[in-house]
Structure prediction request, 484 residues.
Amino acid sequence: MLLAVDGLSKRFGGLRAVNEVGFRLDRGEILGLIGPNGSGKSTLMSLVMGIHRPDAGTIRFDGADIAGWPPNRVAEAGISMVSQHSRPLLQQTVLQNVQLALLPNRLLNLRLAPGIAAAARAALERVGLGDVADRLPSELPFAGLRRLELAKSLARQPTLLLLDEPFAGLSAGEVREFSALIRTFRTPERAIILVDHNVKGVRALVDRVIAMSAGSKIADDLPDHVLADETVRAVYLGGGGEVVPRPAPARREEAILRADRVSVSYGKATALREVSLAVPRGGVAAVVGLNGAGKTSLFNAICGLVPAKGGISYRGASLAGREASRIARDGVVLCPEKRELFGDMSVAENLRLGGSHLRAGELRERMDFVETLFPRLAERRGQFARTLSGGEQQQLALGRALMMKPAVLLIDEPTLGLAPIILDVISEAIEALRDTGTISLLIAEQNLTFALRHADEIHLLENGEITWNGPADRFAAEAGARVL
Ligand SMILES: Nc1ncnc2c1ncn2[C@@H]1O[C@H](COP(=O)(O)OP(=O)(O)OP(=O)(O)O)[C@@H](O)[C@H]1O
Ligand SMILES: [Mg+2]
Prediction:
């Protein structure tokens, strides 16, 4: 037995984030940890890693009770965690980032430890970043940054590797690659715990699954048994899953927003080449494509956040030269992929900021609307945004964007980090919004199931160019092979 957790509990104020959880883990095992947003998965991992101190319980690792040890001591004992967020040091090369992760103390001079460079290089080779070791992290695509985080953990040669949402934001193909890569991390000595909302990805990789709900363990069994469990289905999986593409609309709505041969360059690099698309009034358009295809550049261009060539028009008028803040006030609102919440402000303050242009009555009404859509935000009104779980932060980002009363809402990766059951909630919300006829949506999605379910029109973006577009129900047959 490598890890034995018993009666582990952690409260935040009145909230029992982790409630008397116990489980076992053997060497060589890969364990999946699933559960709704805010059910305590990340907190449980943080307790094991020593980032939070437990209020009660024991964590026996390799013979010692490590509960309450500080993170550096836990790390020395052989546990390493890859967090939900990539935070590389931007001034340091990829290699230096790994080297620094290997130092017990960042103030030590790198030259004092000759073995470190070799260990760091080896870890980069393992994750497929050997060729870009001397580049800066900013030059890596999203999946490359995630690989860098894996290398930082792996370089320490942990006996227990904790992975928090390694698949988040990756395309289906990248998930398969990461899955294969993570499988190679397993050794007879090393165990892995994996948290992710990509149920397919988790199921393909793990030997056993633990499900949590509201801080408690509700199932602990073989993956197929846990995923078939009625309670797990009810609290986590919900009903969805099948790809049901939306049929083409009976008649074409006029466009409320139109991009006409929009190009974006950063220095010499072209991120977007002559992209044209339209968002139908009261409808949903989706841009799908791999990471780095240019989705975020397109959204930023539309919202006036990066300079672009070509034409962008909204309600028939050109947006050229209009300032970003003005574009937002006029009703074209971006919900950014990075969420950009104010971490040291409460949930309610973040929402109120979104609605700062509204009159008091309207503000209240809008708050009610958002809190009905996402009841969790109502429960967490007073909590600092930075302490929300990953999925709760995503709900807050969406909520704040909706507070701005958008006529056109651009959502960059709406489903990132959300539990399947919340996807159902968001799906219903999108259809409810569509029914009001007062909002039009442009979404950028990796999650094709979700995009196909809602979009009247799909645009496939590859290397900065639209390579296919058409109704959702033709996508699978005509373009699906390229991205599914
Ligand atoms: N420092 C804190 N202060 C107050 N509440 C907190 C704090 N940290 C976490 N929480 C709350 O504890 C609950 C559990 O959070 P946790 O991050 O463990 O969830 P999770 O299962 O990882 O969810 P997700 O799938 O969304 O990432 C959440 O409701 C969160 O808001
Ligand atoms: Mg989490």
In short: The mean pLDDT is 90.
